[in-house]
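Worked problem 6 (solution included).
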Amino acid sequence: MLCAFTRLYQIGRSNRVSWDESFFHSRFPNQYLNRSYYHDVHPPLAKLLISLSRFVVDGNNRKIEPKGNYPPDYNYTFTRCFIALFGIGLAPLAYLTCLNLNMHRRTCFLAGILVIADNALCVMSRFVLLDAPLLFFTAAALCSIAGFQNSRHCAFSLAWWRWLLLTGISLGLVSSSKWVGLFAVALVGLYTVEELLNMYTDFTPATTALRHFGARVAALIVLPLAIYMASFV
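Solution. The predicted structure is:
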């Protein structure tokens, strides 16, 4: 509730096109909604989410000018609130990540409070930018891989598969939102390589090692690639 208050309080007070909203709330969504071909410097998922919120409140696909004020009859507050939801989700993800890392509940609570009180995260969540979805999917990937690490001793169980698949889905979403999301992919990739090398040095039976390798290829390579490619369809 506290996180929602800090992200949503008077979010629609200013009706000016602020900061990079001139790009991500006007220019790029205009191209997507009008189905115009153009060169995009980032993968499309985050901008497609913004375009979806635009379409919900403004089905006629009107063109919003990149400077000045929003049209008086345009519900820009809805799109800002939609993006703010990703920022709101960062606090519980911080709590769950620390919980999956077996930290004390007080430490987990402190992590959530620090995310809520972070001024940069709060400001970025209150405008129509790509950063809130990017950070949310990055945090989801970190939380999922922490949960996967926590369930490593019950390999191929339901919880093990759930965290592994959630990690793959999160990697697909973060890499489909912005190129910088590849750092999350690199983090999970390095962790996976180290884990497989530990199996090799521990003389894990070949059949078991192959099962682990196949599961990670499917969940951490094939699944993210499928999500990434689907975002361009």
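Discussion: The chain has a mean pLDDT of 87.
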